[in-house]
Amino acid sequence: METSPPRPLAPGDVVAAYSEELSEWTAAQVTDLDPAWRTAGVLELDWSGAEPSSVDDLDEPAALRLTHHAHTGRLSHCNYEWLLPRSYKVLGNVPLLHDRRSSSYSSGWSIGGQLAMQRRWDRGERSAHHPGERSFLGAEIADLVARSEPFTDIWSISVTEIDSLDGDDIAALFPKLTRLSLSGNLGTLSGAAGLNRLPSLKTLFITDLFGMSAADCLSSTAVPGLEMLGLHSVPAEYATAMRKTWRAEIPNGTFVEITSPRKPDWVTENRDNPLRDWDGREHISAARYRKSVAQYKATRRAVLAALDDGTDAARLAELGRQFGEAFNQLDGTADPFIETEEREELFGALDAIVDHAQAQHGRTFDAARQHLTAGADGVRNW
After folding, report:
1. Helices assigned H by DSSP within 248-285
2. Is the pLDDT of residue 382 over 80?
3. What is the pLDDT of residues 143-191, one digit of tens each?
4. What is d(CA 163, CA 209) in angstroms, rounded to the nearest whole number?
5. From start to end of the chain, where are the E strands?
6. Helix axes 313-331 and 366-379, enclosed angle (nearest 10)
7. CATH 3.80.10 domain span(s) along the chain
8. Dihedral sign for Cα atoms in the order 9, 10, 16, 19
9. Fewer CB within a 10 Å sphere, N or C end of the chain?
10. Which top-rank group of organisms is this from (predicted)?
11. Whole-angstrom distance, CA of residue 186 vs CA of residue 296
12. 354-378 tens-digit pLDDT
C-alpha cells in the first residue's frame, strides 16, 4: 500500500490554483491524508486574488463557510483523490484551520467553484451555474457547427445522449475548453484525435462511446495541462493507448481512471442488452453478470412469447415473479450486489422488453407492463 501521495503533500499544506469560475487564483488547506483510501481532506479558503507565491500573500487565511442555496454555514470541506493536480502548487504549511475530517467525497479537485457560487449568491444571483459552463445534447452540436462562430467564453461543457459526434467539431466550437465530458449510449465518437486541438484542457471524461482507436490518443505534448482523465466503456485499443500515454504523467499530477474497456465485438453483442453496464462494474463479478444476462434473456423470450399470444394478466404477473425470485437468488444474502442503481436497471430491463413488444406489434401494452412490474415488485428482496 502506498503510504504517501505521488506529489508531496502533507496536512497543513496550503495549496493554490487558478479558478476559471473566479478568473483569479484561490486557495485551500489540506486537513488530512488517508492512505487506505488514498484521499486528501481539502478545506477551501475564503480568498481569491493574483497568483500567490507564499502563504503570506493570502493575508490571514480563513475557511470558507457556505450559505448559498440550502447551505447553512457549513465549511466547504471535501475529500478528493490525494494526487495533487498538476496545476496546483503548495504555498507552505500552517496550523490546521479545522481539525475534523470531512464526511463528503468527490472526484476531481475543483477549488474555487464554491467560492464563486457563494459570491454570486451574496450579490443576489441565484443561478447555480457559471455562464462559462454549458450542457448540450449530442444532437445539438451539429446545429451549432452549422450556425455558430466559436464559443470562446465557454470553458466547460458536458455533452450527453451522443449518437454520433465529431471531436473536430468540439475543438472548433469550444477552443478554450478546460473541462470536457462526453457520454453516449453506445454512440460513436469520430475524429477523437481532434481533441488534441484543445491545449487548455485539464479534465476529460468519456463514457460509453466508440469508434476511437490508438491513433486518436490524446497527446501529453498537445494537451500538457491534463490533470483528470476518466474513461469508461470505450474501445480497448483506445483505452490501452491512453493508459500507456498518461500513466507516466501520474507523478506529475494527472489522475487516471480507466474502467471497463470494451473489445471490438462488445457493442454488437450488447446493443440490445439493458444490463450491459454491469459488465465490469466494480462490485459485480463476471459470473454474476453472465447469470444476470442469461436470466434477462430468458425472461425476455418468455414475455415476448406471452404477448404474441395475448395479454394474459396472470401469466405476465407470474413471469414478473419468476424474474424477481431469480434475482433474489442471484443477489443472495452473504454478499448482495443489487443496490439502488441496479434495482432501477432491473426494472428498466423489464420496461425494455415491453417497449420492444410495443414496437413489434404497433400498439401499447400498458397493462402488461404493470402486471410484469407488479409481479417482480411483489417478491423481490433487492
Report:
1. 266-270
2. yes
3. 999 887 899 999 999 999 999 999 999 999 999 999 999 999 899 999 9
4. 9
5. 13-19, 24-34, 39-49, 65-66, 74-75, 77-81, 89-93, 133-137, 156-166, 179-190, 203-210, 228-232, 255-259
6. 40
7. 133-268
8. positive
9. N
10. Bacteria
11. 19
12. 999 999 999 999 999 999 999 999 9
Burial (CB count within 10 angstroms: exposed 0-12, middle 13-18, buried 19+), residue 71: middle
Backbone phi, then psi, for 324, in 5-degree steps? -60, -40
CA distance 243 to 161: 25
Query: Which of the following CATH numbers is that of domain 133-268: 1.50.10, 3.80.10, 1.20.140, 2.40.50?
Result: 3.80.10
Integer-rounded Cα radius of gyration of the chain: 24
8 A C-beta contact, residue 90 and residue 84: yes
Q: How confident is the model at residue 129 (pLDDT cuts 50, 70, 90)?
A: confident
C-alpha cell at 371: 402486471
Distance, in Å, from the CA atom of 50 to the CA atom of 58, rounded to the nearest integer, reads 10
Whether 377 contacts 324, CB under 8 Å: yes
Does residue 137 sit in helix, strand or coil? strand
